[in-house]
Amino acid sequence: MMGSTARAEFRARYWVESFEPLERVAEVIAGEQSSGTFLQLAGESDELRARARARVVSVTPRQQVEQPSLFSEHLQRGRGDAGFTQGEIEIAFPIANVGANLSTLLATVAGNLFELGEVTGLRLLDLDLPDDFIDRFARPQFGIAGTRRLAGVFYGPLIGTIIKPSVGLTPEATAQLVDALCEGGIDFIKDDELMADPPYAPFEARLRAVMPVLQRHAELLGRMPMYAINISGDVDEMRRRHDLVHAAGGSCVMVSVNWTGPAAVESLRRHCELPIHGHRNGWGLFSRSPALGIAFEAYQKIWRLAGVDHLHVNGLRNKFWEPDESVVRSARACLAPWGSALPLMPVFSSGQTALQAAATHARIGCDDLMHLAGGGIIGHPGGIAAGVASMRQAWQAAANGQSLADAARMHPELAAAIAAFGDK
Amino acid sequence: MMGSTARAEFRARYWVESFEPLERVAEVIAGEQSSGTFLQLAGESDELRARARARVVSVTPRQQVEQPSLFSEHLQRGRGDAGFTQGEIEIAFPIANVGANLSTLLATVAGNLFELGEVTGLRLLDLDLPDDFIDRFARPQFGIAGTRRLAGVFYGPLIGTIIKPSVGLTPEATAQLVDALCEGGIDFIKDDELMADPPYAPFEARLRAVMPVLQRHAELLGRMPMYAINISGDVDEMRRRHDLVHAAGGSCVMVSVNWTGPAAVESLRRHCELPIHGHRNGWGLFSRSPALGIAFEAYQKIWRLAGVDHLHVNGLRNKFWEPDESVVRSARACLAPWGSALPLMPVFSSGQTALQAAATHARIGCDDLMHLAGGGIIGHPGGIAAGVASMRQAWQAAANGQSLADAARMHPELAAAIAAFGDK
User: Which of A6, A36, B134, B167 gets the most CB atoms within 10 Å of its CB?
Assistant: First the structure.
């Protein structure tokens, strides 16, 4: 901790771009997002400012550019003719300004500052909260160890899949697919994020259809494959659905975190007795512009504070826009210790097959993760069981330092996966 | 409605940029965000697809560009060498895929599609829901007429201000300021979004300090100045705080909509007996990149569905990045009819004084709005009452078609505002 002071603080680090010197931009942000500079209340202002004003911790200019990343109306007033500075700043905010209030914490570190006319780019890179401040938020209840215990999977990644088609399946068709997946030895199943409570497959009907199937396999296996059933809705609906899942013996619930929102997830978490599978759909909006938004390092901390247990990170060689390097950084961020906020189990998905296991193992350095494959399991030429087996074989080979080709000689399922998916 | 079909649909319109023909991009989005194209379930797939698949309504290429707005890993695979097409597409989704579930509606229209590798820019421009689908959401409870009734202000804009400094004031100092503002004839007061329930000014202590002041002025005036007290927190906290405000005779609650989130706002709304003042802090993140995010036309519809009554739109000649044209479009979007989802009362703020009244009146064409000034009221050389009077005088002049200079001859408060703030 630099610059020790008497008051307790949390910090936010940003990438910024401006036509102003970054020192001045940092002061504008510190002012705007704390006591401001607007009003002088007689006799009170100095003491108040000392107590409440945010503090610039560091300013690190990196480079000059000629063109702004984002437009600002201030440019119409002749600003920016001398170019723009990009760099990083860190701001410390008094904890006393906010208290343990997640939405107000976000209003502070990710509020009006994105609209400042002085900046032509602003990205929240990371958050740094003292341990005893972290302790006051909802936080993950199960994390990796709790998830492994409930799933009965103590070694290797949880091999999983997604119910597809995304929408359209009746409760009965869903239950048949779940039956086939359990039969095939799957560890983990999740709903698609587009499927929650549609009229043709109401939540309760899906739950009633699926749970007896899961229970039957649990009796055979001695463990129940974990099914992250999508309970997204308003908070009362989510709590009621959680209670139904829990009463029926289910072991996981899923929510679309961005579109239920931090306060809703936190409110679910404080009621919840099951791991919360966090689906980040919409994440691209928050992060895909390099000059705007929230980096995953900060984003996953928001959801740790809210209390999710698993968070999607995309997958290596995925079908989306995201480079592998970004996926790897996201997964590592989920797995890093952060005070009493348990590490999140990162969820790898999108175009995954047995062929990405070795690289994923090598780059993440552990197997405390979920590896979800759609076509790589359900589309395996040998069927679902062979698809699941091929994924496990590939992970086992990676853990043993064995090449995929060597392992494939002993495992026909893996050999078939390589033949079918090897052009990736 | 184009292309009438038997099934009920809602529509989303996007700006897109891609190295692929936009027709193909539209089909990818329609597939990805509905039944997909991934799995052929024996005997079911054709019927299922006919029922569940989203439909491309229109594709309108606009221009070719050489450089992509956003990076995609697909560009590394040789895509984009022939340039990029920008344009608009419209997609129709079966209502039956989603039902009346706001977070799943958002997962559908604003979910994984932002991450598609085929697009190098994607922005949700607008949403089009059939009236009987709108009816099934929470929706605004008070809107403009309900707000005017509770505030006792039936003509002209609600003239308001923000409690400043943003953070640091004790409950007693807040109550003193509220007293001075009421004394000065204010219609509307809001908390800063950074102030909710900090340790030095807990929510209940603030409420206890402020409400007797408001009650006293209400008895004198025959109407209570509306105070939008910031209740942001988890859903249980927000509901409890709402109940306290309501029981104490308060007439409005404020929430940070982005950082509590759609499901939390909706859950508050279903419990709420007061207008919800929607603070959009963080909005810049959603909208400031022209190649990514959500346009305000769509954004304000999300919050209408969730049930807010007022929504911030920035102000003309504001201190932020946003051009006036964008502010005007936002306010008009709030005021436009949309089925049974009442128009939102747009809230103008940021660097406002009496000097923006005429232009705001001219460009919005009505006065069903809140006009909030900080320095323009509290910093008026004649004090708060003169600041409020100057704002009203300016709006009255605008409504009468009188020039500001003419009006200032009759109104010393307005003349003083022009002298003090006229350099803007």
Answer: B167
